[in-house]
Amino acid sequence: MGDFFHPIRLEPDKCAGRMRCLRACPTEAIRVRNGKAAIVEDRCIDCGECARACPSAAIIPQTSSFTDFARFKYTIALPSPALYGQFRRDVLPRTILAGLRRIGFDDACDVACASEAASIAIDEYLGHYQGPLPLLSPFCPTIVRLVQARFPNLIDQFIPIDSPMEIAAREAKRKKTKELGLRREEIGVIYLTPCPPKMVAIKHPPRKRISHIDGAIAISDIYFPLLAAIAEAGNDQPENGEPVRGIGLGWPVLGGQVSSLRAESSLAVGGLGDVERIFEEIENGKLGDVQFVECHACPQGCCGGSLTVENPYFARGKILNLVARFGGTPCQDREKIRELYQKNYFSLPGRIPSRPFSPLDKDIARAIEKRHLIQKTYETLPKIDCAACGSPNCKAFAEDVVLERAALEQCVVLVAERHRSGAGACGIPAETAQEAVARQERTA
Amino acid sequence: MPGEPLFCQRFEVAGRDFVNAGRASTTIKSILRDVGVPPALIRRAAIAAYEAEMNVVLYARKGTMELRVSPKDVQIRVQDEGDGIADIALAMQEGFSTASEEIRELGFGAGMGLPNIRKNADVFHIDSAVGKGTTLEITIRV
């Protein structure tokens, strides 16, 4: 493994070894060795919690910059509707789109309307689906990666409906090639992203399809120029076009997908911990009476993504206010979307492959032995999960010791104890996991 | 069989402890993932372990779950201190349940627990004595 694209990069030179990332990582994918953090590539699910936690800005999202798009004759900005939640209440979506045109994009298109199309397509899919329930929303790339790694049995429960950003990008390219007489490759569609993992969905989608999007700029990178452009242009202008409307406006907040659907029994879950707990229940055979589960890695949904600027609760309030004002008027013709759905316009072919974390050993007998030794080693440890050893907790440290990625004397608590009991102030003899277990058993 | 690699772990399960209900099966699942048991078998083991754990939580005062993993099979032995089952054949029927209204309120007691465990196990033994408790032995071949 190790050949997967990750949308974040760790710069060792900037890392001050303060271990915040180590504690923040939900999949125990970080180790700090010799004062520098390193990512265990095949355990990383791209959630970006480490980047959020890093006090030294050493973990850098791999998003695009403006200059990457100089090769295009025409550029279209496609902001995640999470962007609409980043400004004061009186700044409406059409003003934000106009602001994007002012800062240098040739055009800017709304994505919320494509979310409405996606929700109609999901309604259709749910109406005809006969397989195991519940179905899962596939729009958070971190959740997809989590399922690939930890819940491979649930992979086929992802709804195979295209994401709003792809639906909007395809529409924008189709329209503009016609309107301007340009070739598709001359038009650059740039997503304005609330989080790094969307880069995975664009650059290396799990279903091996080709994205209609040419790159993604972080909302946080565009925020200040955009804010200035909006202030300069003044408040809402009618010449900015039709107001953005429709139930899709609610998609960036937790529960937005669910409330846009007709399904009677559905559920919205945010935050990796709670999502994992729900997936455990599904794997245990529960929740078979729920049709649809909307799931986000971020507790508040995309409006609280790691590349957004505003407080997620403020952003949520702003989005809900937009839904209350403009959500009631549809922007899509349900019958038309149904017809497109019948023609498979929204459906995604192919299967998402599983990508499990590596087991302790390829040979199951040896893996069992190692798991046994890990348990025994763990029992000799202080179990306070201080992480001073550079592994995220005592259990992970026990695993690292048995797999020879760490040495037992990296545990400061053990070393201090042995020092106190007079085992020698300097030069503590290196002890293997086996020896430590044996010693523990002798004294027990 | 001496020398055969074996992983064993024992879990205590407390009756009526709905806060911690399901923890043992979650840990069992993560152990099976660590050692590289194929996902389809993990799912079967997870369902069987979860149903068995919930039976202890719902119907017994307390119980233990013992996991034994070898390269050949996964064994889960569940032993509880509960009222026991008077008629095992009847209890094994789909839809049969002695659950109280209170338990049904929680979404359990559909009478699918034991049949579901049997369905997911390759070998299944049940033994029960009224007033003493119930023992389940679940084997899933790797």
Shape-level CATH architecture of the largest domain in chain A: 3-Layer(aba) Sandwich
Kindly estimate the percentage of residues of chain A that lie in beta strands according to DSSP: 5-15%
Find the CATH superfamily of chain B. Answer: Histidine kinase-like ATPase, C-terminal domain
- The CATH class of the largest domain in chain A is Alpha Beta
- The CATH architecture of chain B: 2-Layer Sandwich
Measured as a percent range, the helix fraction of chain A is: 25-40%
Kindly report the average pLDDT value of chain A: 92
Order of helices and strands of chain B: EHHEEHHHEE
Number of domains of chain B: 1
Model regions low in confidence, pLDDT < 50 over at least 5 residues of chain A: none
According to DSSP, the number of beta strands of chain A is: 11
| Spatial order of strands in the largest sheet of chain B | 1-2-3-5-4
Kindly report the CATH topology of the largest domain in chain A. Rossmann fold
Oligomer category:
heterodimer
Helix content of chain B: 25-40%
Given as residue ranges, the uncertain stretches of chain B (5+ residues, pLDDT < 50) are none
Number of strands of chain B: 5
SSE string of chain A, helices as H and strands as E: EHEEHEEHEHEHHEHEHHEHEHHHHHH
What is the structural class of chain B?
alpha+beta
What is the 3D shape of chain A?
globular
Largest sheet features of chain B: 5 strands, antiparallel
What structural keywords apply?
heterodimer; A: 444 residues; alpha/beta; Alpha-Beta Plaits; Rossmann fold; 3-methyladenine DNA Glycosylase II, Chain A, domain 3; 3 domains; 4-stranded parallel beta sheet; 11 strands; globular; B: 142 residues; alpha+beta; Heat Shock Protein 90; 5-stranded antiparallel beta sheet; 5 helices
